[in-house]
Amino acid sequence: DCVVTSLRPSPVPVDLYRQEGLDFVRSLEAGGGTDINSAVITAIDQLCGDNSSCVPQITLLSDGLATSGEIDSSKIADNIRTRCQDPSRSLNTLAFGSGADEELLKALAYGNGGRYKFIYEGMDSGEQLVGFLETVLCPLLSEINFNFPNGNVINVSVISFPTYYRGDEILVSGEILSGDTVSFEVTANKSGGVGY
Q: What is the pLDDT of residues 85-100, one digit of tens each?
């Protein structure tokens, strides 16, 4: 819609406010436009305003193109990437049906540490949505870091990953300088904040 409407100005526990949230969503009415840029920036600002209790994930559901506010896809992607710089945050996107701007939604998700899913119309869209949300809302690990303490590995690829979900793979590559064995350490936080 052309106006960004929020249930509340800051995060609330889902288990305590589920019915209020459902009632709020059911009361929304389409107003003829889609302002993806303002919606996501508002969510980032509301959820992560002072960074003291930042909710690390935002999920955007859209069935249309950006038709109000900023409508240039590359500017929207740049605006959101600039605002969502913390690697512990991610933006997940869901495209509902053939009218959604799939390319923009993919760019937003993949450019901001999130996941993208196309929801097919006329099928089990509720099940598709629940399956996606169950995956992205429950990472198994977060803040995953690889360390090679012996220094015998160079030209190492990415060694830090914000999240690990059920079914994910993590790939770290590098060049071994000497010997045929490599020692490495992995540190991570288990879902719920327990460190390893």
A: 776 678 899 998 888 9
Q: Give the burial class of 80: count Cβ atoms within 10 A of its Cβ; 0-12 exposed, 13-18 middle, 19 or more buried.
A: buried
Q: What burial letters (b/e) apply to 124-147, b meaning 16+ CB within 10 Å? A: eeeebbeebeebbeebebbbbebe
DSSP 139: -
Say whether pTM exceeds 0.85: no
Q: Which residues pair with 91 in a beta bridge?
A: 58
SS3 65: coil
Per-10-residue mean pLDDT of the chain, 196 residues long, equals: 77 78 83 86 77 66 88 92 77 89 93 87 80 79 86 88 83 84 86 52
Task: Tell me whether strands 141-147 and 185-190 are parallel, antiparallel or unpaired.
Answer: antiparallel
Kindly provide the residue ranges of all beta strands, DSSP E only, lying in the chain, ordered along the sequence: 57-62, 90-96, 116-119, 141-147, 153-154, 160-164, 175-176, 185-190, 194-195
- Helical spans, DSSP H, in 68-154: 73-83, 102-110, 125-136
